[in-house]
Specification:
It contains 5 helices and 14 strands. A hairpin with a 2-residue loop joins strand 6 and strand 7.
């Protein structure tokens, strides 16, 4: 289903089916493509009488760097993302105000709208550096082989050193574990108590002293009987 426009409310409805699935419930919206679709709608016979919906400043090359286009909403238009459900859309390809709830440009519902605006948003090989590009850069950094970064003072070398220290500590723990005798069982402890010489524990008030005196007394009594 293509984008629709309600002339009475000036609401553009942008449908999930027209967006690009990133993963799960996350979609991306090419805002330049949305701009062109709005232009086609307003140029069609049912809507040709309506005022412009946006102001567009195209990409600009400054000192060899291509800066991204900008889109600003005009004349009371606003945007609704459909269906009204729990999914997310990331706005890419321009600095824009499609996400601005406070200004009334976005009709908020359950859809999470994610802007990628940046004061330094530039275009690389014909594509703007949006969130997807930043995600790819982060993945590339995380997947980089540590072996290629061994210069002293660098983050890669610091991580290698930490890994080496951790491995060394784990090895020492393993050695300690192999040299520690197994802990005695409950039965071992019980046997040790019953086999303990009573004469080694005759201090006044001790259990050994009490047992010896009682046992002796009973033994004498039984012998006399």
């Amino acid at each position: 289903m293509a984008m629709t426009l309600d002339p009475a409310t000036k609401v553009f409805t942008i449908n999930q089916a027209d967006l690009t699935l990133v993963q799960g419930t996350l979609y991306s919206a090419d805002t330049d493509a949305l701009r062109k679709e709005m232009m086609l709608l307003l140029a069609s016979e049912p809507y040709i009488w309506m005022p412009d919906s946006f102001n567009h400043n195209t990409e600009v090359v400054v000192a060899g760097v291509t800066y991204a286009r900008t889109l600003t909403t005009l004349n009371g238009y606003s945007y609704t993302f459909s269906p009204d459900a729990q999914w997310s859309v990331r706005l890419e390809g321009s600095n824009n105000d499609f996400w601005d709830i406070e200004a009334g440009f976005l009709n908020q519902n359950q859809v999470q709208v994610i802007p990628t605006n940046s004061a330094g948003l530039i275009v690389n090989e014909g594509q703007s550096l949006g969130q997807a590009d930043l995600d790819n850069i982060a993945d590339a950094v995380a997947d980089e082989a540590l072996a290629g970064h061994t210069t002293a003072g660098t983050l890669g070398k610091a991580i290698i050193d930490i890994e080496a220290d951790t491995t060394s500590i784990e090895g020492k723990i393993d050695i300690i574990d192999t040299n520690v005798d197994a802990l005695p069982t409950a039965a071992d402890n019980a046997d040790a108590v019953w086999d303990e010489p009573i004469d080694d524990h005759l201090a006044a008030g001790s259990t050994g002293s009490w047992l010896k005196n009682k046992v002796l007394t009973v033994a004498k009594y039984l012998g006399l009987s």
